[in-house]
Amino acid sequence: xxxxxxxxxxxxxxxxxxxxxxxxxxxxxxxxxxxxxxxxxxxxxxxxxxxxxxxxxxxxxxxxxxxxxxxxxxxxxxxxxxxxxxxxxxxxxxxxxxxxxxxxxxxxxxxxxxxxxxxxxxxxxxxxxxxxxxxxxxxxxxxxxxxxxxxxxxxxxxxxxxxxxxxxxxxxxxxxxxxxxxxxxxxxxxxxxxxxxxxxxxxxxxxxxxxxxxxxxxxxxxxxxxxxxxxxxxxxxxxxxxxxxxxxxxxxxxxxxxxxxxxxxxxxxxxxxxxxxxxxxxxxxxxxxxxxxxxxxxxxxxxxxxx
Length: 307
Known about the structure:
By secondary structure, the chain is mostly helical. It has a single domain (38-150, 199-306), classed as Up-down Bundle (A middle domain of Talin 1), CATH 1.20.1420.30. Helix content is 81%, strand content 3%. Helix 4 (66-91) packs antiparallel against helix 10 (229-254). Mean pLDDT is 82; it is low at 152-157. Keywords: Membrane, Transmembrane, Transmembrane helix. It holds the Pfam family Na_Ca_ex.
């Protein structure tokens, strides 16, 4: 038990430090490439911080535990939109670009609603998964094409810009710490929960989903604290879209999945959480601290209902 608790602590430290390095590297890349922070958050950072979900879901599907694969994604997305955006907004009000409200959030909402519809029959077939992955390719095309039009929203800084090789090193080191730290956390937390007699279903929807979302939480909170809210909100939206369209798309093509422990309540909460962010975004294109408090409270209520 003591060793597992130590794993949890080390995992959290690695994730926080890794998020700091990843954010610095990603912002430097945005400056070098003259790309908006939102695009970096929606692509490089989002994909990197979603690697834990990808590993867990793929291995789960291959082992025949597809309910864990889907549960991990649904739980992670709820964790992302309610707790991560909520806590990040509590740390510092998050400014949101108009293009995010008009394009990125609606796309995340469509992806969530589509997954809910596909799950009504209790299965995610290879055809369903292929549709999800094609939508992911379309999303990436639209995002990258939009980057050329938007130009850059990164403010000029007086400090000397980070060397390209160093920014790449920090991104790789940050991702390694994020993935390694979250794995330590999940292993330690799962072992502790099992010893305490918590069911595997609850572990999957809470500890595993929360653990694999630690990178998004750390990256978004650090980004918000540093004033890079474009990275913070882009990371959450990009991760949600990547989780559903890319991870479930690839996983489902490899191994069709059957739902067991995931209910319509869980899937509906995933959709509702995106709608809440969308509604809050229309208030001066900013998520204020009180709105962050509401998102966090809704997440706590959802977890309480699960337990």
